[in-house]
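Hi P.,

Sorry for the delay on this. The queue was packed all week, but I finally got your sequence through. Input first:
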Amino acid sequence: MIGSLKPIEDVLLVDAHGVLSLTGGGGKTSLMFHLARQLVLAGKRVMTTTTTRIFMPTADQSGTVLINADPKEVLRQALTCRDDASHITAAAEYMADSDKLRGFAPSAIRTFEESGLFDWILVEADGSASRPLKAPAKHEPAIPPNTTVLVSVAGLDVIGSPLNEDMVFRSELAGKLMKLYGGETITESALVNLIIHPYGSFKGASSRAHRFIFLNKADNPKRLVSSDRVVELLRQTPYDVAEALIVGQALEGVHVHAVYTLKKWS
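Then the structure:
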């Protein structure tokens, strides 16, 4: 274990700048805007965006939202407000019927990065329909190729629950990866099967990206015990799936209970 109560930004933001993408289950949006807030406090310029869809951010999450389908036009607008906003959220379209923002193709994120306007670009690169766990379909996740940090999120509340669509988005796909039938109980071992599977939690991850697991909803002793078991099982596998696992909660802010090293990266 690296240590308890370590701020999550100290773990994830391994460089002075980069592109951080979030995939997996519920908690991605809360984590993204928390990181943005901490980066701004550290004097960094930040863009938050998506390659899927996110809800329109609240004023507390992001005071400046730029909407245009052309990434270059977004950058032009960002230049005009650079003295007023160290954090902007960008999207291609606002969908009024769902109060959601539609994001950009993964390739557009490189355009934003190469502009030099932002120290960090934070990307919600997956959708989970608010479920704590998901398995990616063929077209998922939509990870930008220039991602330097990749975080896969899973909710500890799935442990002990039956495998169904109430708890797991694309539960039929997930069952194949976790080696479970529909309705069977999700165990720590089943969760680890999803994490380590080539088509599971880190599907589409660049070998160059720093990879982390965030186990969300660690809000009672039973779930903390489950997180210990997940770490134990991951360390027993021959696969280097991620360099660290973070146990915490992403709701009102992000609270970290523990950080466990899984792999020493060269």
